[in-house]
């Protein structure tokens, strides 16, 4: 590097116990390390951790660095290995998460489906019981309107009643059904 930076002399200082001198290596190669990691890692938020891990690994392996060789290439290779290891771990964790999430989704889905069916069955049975408790004319109007899909005017004509009577009967039936369902704890 330029500006009088000599990685070999800095490495010699660090090896002689001047740990603070290692900061010059970090400053000199930080951008290179981050570029290597950014190209390898699947998530940019991992670059900071990868850079720290790279420089810690390089520090511990400083005894392996051969003076007179290319420090930049040496530290970038450590960054590549760090990035590959981090990516491998990230992919494995994501595969496990996906597998786990799928397993949970299936288990919960089955459980929820069973609960909904049980609740639907309970609600349906309770509603049928409440309908059976209605007066016969009211039950007939409810059946014609909700189950057969007849309109109020058709029901009125078939029962020889007014449309208003059918609407009032349906209104009262809904009130009675709501009270019955509430008493059963359904609503």
Task: Write up what this structure looks like.
- The chain is an all-alpha fold and 187 residues long.
- It folds into two domains: 7-92, Rna Polymerase Sigma Factor, Chain: A, CATH 1.10.1740; 133-183, Arc Repressor Mutant, subunit A (Orthogonal Bundle), CATH 1.10.10.
- Helix content is 78%, strand content 0%.
- It contains seven helices and no strands.
- It has helices spanning 7-15, 22-40, 47-60, 71-132, 136-147, 152-159, 163-183.
- Helix 2 (22-40) crosses helix 3 (47-60), helix 2 packs across helix 4 (71-132) and helix 6 packs across helix 7.
- The termini are far apart.
- The relative contact order is 0.07.
- The model has no long low-confidence stretch (mean pLDDT 88).
CATH superfamily of the largest domain: RNA polymerase sigma factor, region 2, helix turn helix motif
Q: What is the helix content?
A: over 70%
- The structure class reads mainly alpha
Strand content bin: under 5%
Number of domains: 2
Summarize the main sheet: none
CATH topology of the largest domain: Rna Polymerase Sigma Factor, Chain: A
CATH level 1 name of the largest domain: Mainly Alpha
Count of DSSP E strands? 0
Low-confidence stretches: none
Write the CATH architecture name of the largest domain: Orthogonal Bundle
Globally, the shape reads rod-shaped
Order of helices and strands: HHHHHHH
- In round numbers, the mean pLDDT is 88
Distance between the termini: 77 Å
If helices are DSSP runs of H or I spanning 4 or more residues, what is the number of helices?
7
Q: What Rg do the Cα atoms give?
A: 38 Å
């Amino acid at each position: 590097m330029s500006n009088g930076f000599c990685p070999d002399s800095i490495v010699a200082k660090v090896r002689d116990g001047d740990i603070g001198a290692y900061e010059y290596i970090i400053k000199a190669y930080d951008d290179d390390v981050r570029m290597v990691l950014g190209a390898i890692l699947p998530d940019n938020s991992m670059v900071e951790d990868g850079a720290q891990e790279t420089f810690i690994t390089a520090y511990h392996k400083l005894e392996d660095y051969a003076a007179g060789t290319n420090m930049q290439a040496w530290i970038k290779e450590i960054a590549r290995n760090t990035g590959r290891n981090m990516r491998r771990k990230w992919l494995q964790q994501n595969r496990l998460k996906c597998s786990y999430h799928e397993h949970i989704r299936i288990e919960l889905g089955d459980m929820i489906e069973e609960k909904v069916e049980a609740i639907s069955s309970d609600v349906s049975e309770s509603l049928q019981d409440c309908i059976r408790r209605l007066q016969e004319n009211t039950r007939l109007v409810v059946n014609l309107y909700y189950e057969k899909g007849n309109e109020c005017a058709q029901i009125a004509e078939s029962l020889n009643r007014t449309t208003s009577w059918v609407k009032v009967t349906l209104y009262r039936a809904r009130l009675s059904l709501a009270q019955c369902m509430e008493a059963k704890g359904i609503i």
